[in-house]
Amino acid sequence: MNVVRGTIFTLLALLWIAGLNANAIAAEKASAEPKINVNTASEAELIKLPGIGPAKAKAIVEHRQQSPFKTVDDLKDVRGIGAATVESLRDQVTVGAK
Question: Would you call 94 helix, strand, or coil by DSSP?
Fold first, then answer.
């Protein structure tokens, strides 16, 4: 019985360590990729973002032509983009130098 418990404990520890490594790798990858500037990106570049299809990419371009984005949160002003989408994009986009 103790051998089984020890084996289970060891497996759980290894799974936990593997999970930590996966999170670290994902964070490193995200920080290594350049952010997309929503004030200058083409529709084709914007479509590469998760949750942004052709219609939303076009809406972003049209919105910035009228009023450039000052903050990433300004994306919520674009029709079809809500708070959840902005949060999912926050680490992948920029509005340019401040």
Answer: strand
By the 8 A CB rule, do 73 and 86 touch?
yes
Give one DSSP letter per residue of 43-78, joined into a string. HHHHHTSTT--HHHHHHHHHHHHHS--SSGGGGGGS
- Which two structure tokens, joined as six digits, stand for 82? 């809500």
Helix, strand, coil % in the chain, rounded to nearest 5: 65, 5, 35
26-82 pLDDT tens trace: 555 555 789 999 999 999 999 999 999 999 999 999 999 999 999 999 999 999 999
Are 82 and 76 a contacting pair, CB within 8 Å? yes
